[in-house]
Amino acid sequence: MERCHHPASPEAQAVQRRVILVGNPNVGKSALFNALTGLRTTVSNYPGTTVEVARGTFSSADGDVEVVDSPGVNSLLPLTEDERVTWDLVDAARRDARVVVVQVADAKDLRRALLLTLQLGQLGAPTVLALNMSDEAEARGQRVDAEGLSLALGVPVRATVATRGKGIDALRAALHEARPPANHLPLPEDVAPSVAAILAGEAPLPDPEAPAPFVARYHEAMLTHAAVLARRFCGTHVTRGTAPLPWSAGFARSLGRLCTHPVWGWPLLFLVLFAVYEVVGVFGAGALVGLLENGLFGGYLNPWAKALFSHLPSRLLQDFLVGQYGVVTMGLTYGLAIVLPIVTTFFLVFGALEDSGYLPRLAVMSDRVLRAMGLNGRAVLPMVLGLGCDTMATMTTRILATRKERILATLLLALGVPCSAQLGVILAMLAAVPFSAGVVWFVAVAGVMVVVGWLGKHLLPGRTGEFVVELPPLRLPMASNVLAKTAARVEWYLKEALPLFALGTFLLFVLDRLDLLGAVIRAGQPVVTGVLGLPPQASEAFLIGFLRRDYAATRLFDMSRGNGLDTVQLVTAMVTITLFVPCVANIFIIAKERGAKTALAMVAFIFPFAFAVGGLVRLVMRGLGLWEMR
Amino acid sequence: MSGDAMTVCLLCGFAFEPGGSACAERGCPLAGAGCRTLDCPRCGYAVPDERASRLGVWIRRWFARPTASETVPQRLADLRPGDEAVLDGIEGDAALAARLTAQGLAPGVAVHLVQRIPSYVIEMGVTTLAVERRVARAIRIRPTQEDAQ
């Protein structure tokens, strides 16, 4: 069989090999990836997409083996961009003899796993089947006949418990025996030609938003066959109540049900939000920022840097590094002392929430609200991630089913969802004003989101997709997994944010030197002072707001501590900067994901809109005479 | 059926037709002016007619459950929480059907409805799915074999 299209010698084949992990979502693919590769992993975007793919290596007797963790899929016929990436990766496996697929299956749910195995068979991709979470299956009284299944499918089948590293060596040893799964499933007559054409590369893949009707019938046919296999090789077939659930699984199940309960779901949701606030807002933005900003940077690093650089011959260079707009004293201090602790604690909590399986349940609870805004419950995932980093969240909007939803979610993220850094600064500003001021800020921003969402729902063409979300069992997150994810995200964030912080500071420094800062401040005065009623210096903050909103918020925060803005001014500033244009990186990502025209249109809308809403909020507050006695 | 029209006194259990003449006979001034109390002609116990209250009707409907004897459930949306059924097919557009089948919803699969609000939550084997009402209406079901016997 001629499968090797690469001009590689047999020796080279043995040395450089690649394993692609494929599997349904929530089958422990990442855990198996970690168990296989250890800590030598890198996360990068799949070429030409924003889908993240983790890569790692392990050493075997005949050289290093690269392991690629593909996005979880339910079917190989792609319905989303993630699934498209998996298709491409698997497609490479059938063309290149050095690439094998390890399909990770949930041993408890053989039927759904076998749907993928059978598709891999049709593709002709050499495969090893890992029956993961086999301990959980046994605890439920299910025993999979691995040998029988292996004979029937013609591929090696190994039981694994990835979280405890069980069966990993056996899995590695089986890579040599990888074969394409047996494929003698007759497809229905109306389906077979279409599938064959796609597999042969003669027909395009189905359009994710409007697939041909044969896709569903194809899945049905495969599932029927998969169910027969699953029944034959799974000791006791899955029926509810055949074996008592282990205590922990029973508890997780009850808690999981409570999380989507029409009544008890709400207190649980607020409990989760409160926990997030305590960790990110109180611990991260409060304690850690105080420690780093006043303690480390204010007490040691900045004085040291000033002392160190005072020996520099040039006054200009000194100012550039440690002056009023110094890269170290302003840029680095803002980035590392204020933003870093907040971002880190947020991603820590978000990573734990992600792994716990709570987020899909949050989607269920928020479905109705988001429906009013032309979205559905799925959109809660990018929205919540946006509270960490809007740029990252904009990439995540591709999990939404239709173009309309993706555009709306992108717009709402760019408009009104403050990222963790900005949120942290805003929370710190709120600490200085009456609680009611915080309520006004929240109502103004949330109100704008709902109104814009509602308008978008009715004005934008297209439709909102149906809400379908899988609820994985609730699990206790694994510390190693959460920490690794957090580290990767924080690194990503720093790489993106710190250069912009430095650039923003440099811009201010240059403008200050050229005496242009005064001109900018004067130019912004009609709007900043006239409409918003802020001191003219606030123009400076809005100017760097074009680079990053959180940087601008930090600048305003600094100013408010210095020259005492009153409550109305503070709330106006907070509302305006929350709604202000997204950061440069986010604009780039919007342009990449939705097109440059859409990105420009969004910025053109948001820029005046933020000032208009800020001015309106100020008028309302002044009109009502809020906090006037102060 | 006269059962709809008849009401039962909450105090003495007497069955009577609401809006009878009892109140008018006792000279109540509101009797003619759209008074919506249920006035028992036997013991005189009077309560506001809940069917006159929009909120009352709404609450009744909220808790009302179609019983198996009344209608054979045809759609997932007709099931009550706790019910089991077998999936029969998926209607609606091809994109929805393709997605649902990829997630394992295929004819012949046993499903168990956990809840209806805020979303329909269904369990099949170890998979749990939450779907909106529109989707639950697009999923055809039939009774499980035990139920059918």
Descriptive report:
The complex is a heterodimer of chains A (630) and B (149). Helices cover 62% and strands 8% of the residues of chain A. Chain A has 630 residues and is an alpha/beta fold. Chain A folds into 2 domains: 14-244, P-loop containing nucleotide triphosphate hydrolases (Rossmann fold); 265-624, no CATH class. Chain A has a 7-stranded mixed beta sheet with strand order 2-3-4-1-5-6-7, with helices on both faces. In chain A, helix 4 links the parallel strand 5 (99-106) and strand 6 (127-132). In chain A, helix 11 runs antiparallel to helix 12 (315-322), helix 13 runs antiparallel to helix 20 (479-513) and helix 16 packs parallel to helix 25. The radius of gyration of chain A is 28 Å and the shape is elongated. Chain B is of the alpha+beta class and 149 residues long. Chain B has 2 domains: 7-63, no CATH class; 76-148, SH3 type barrels, CATH 2.30.30.90. Chain B has helices at residues 22-25, 54-63, 94-102, 133-138, 145-148, and strands spanning 7-8, 15-16, 37-39, 46-48, 84-90, 110-115, 120-124, 127-131, 139-143. In chain B, the strands form 3 sheets. A 5-stranded antiparallel beta sheet of chain B has the order 8-7-6-5-9. In chain B, strands 1-2 form a two-stranded antiparallel ribbon. Classes of the chains: A alpha/beta (630), B alpha+beta (149). Strand 8 (468-470) of chain A pairs antiparallel with strand 8 of chain B.
Itemize the secondary structure elements and their pairings.
The complex is a heterodimer of chains A (630) and B (149).
Chain A: H1 10-15, E1 17-23, H2 29-37, E2 41-45, E3 52-60, E4 63-69, H3 81-95, E5 99-106, H4 110-123, E6 127-132, H5 134-139, H6 146-153, E7 157-159, H7 168-174, H8 192-199, H9 214-233, H10 247-259, H11 265-309, H12 315-322, H13 327-356, H14 359-372, H15 380-386, H16 390-396, H17 403-416, H18 420-430, H19 435-459, E8 468-470, H20 479-513, H21 517-531, H22 538-545, H23 549-563, H24 567-579, H25 584-594, H26 596-624
Parallel strand pairs in A: 1-4, 1-5, 5-6, 6-7
Antiparallel strand pairs in A: 2-3, 3-4
Helix pairs in contact in A: 4-9, 11-12, 11-13, 11-18, 13-18, 13-20, 15-16, 16-25, 17-19, 17-25, 17-26, 18-23, 19-24, 21-22, 22-23, 23-24, 24-26, 25-26
Chain B: E1 7-8, E2 15-16, H1 22-25, E3 37-39, E4 46-48, H2 54-63, E5 84-90, H3 94-102, E6 110-115, E7 120-124, E8 127-131, H4 133-138, E9 139-143, H5 145-148
Antiparallel strand pairs in B: 1-2, 3-4, 5-6, 5-9, 6-7, 7-8
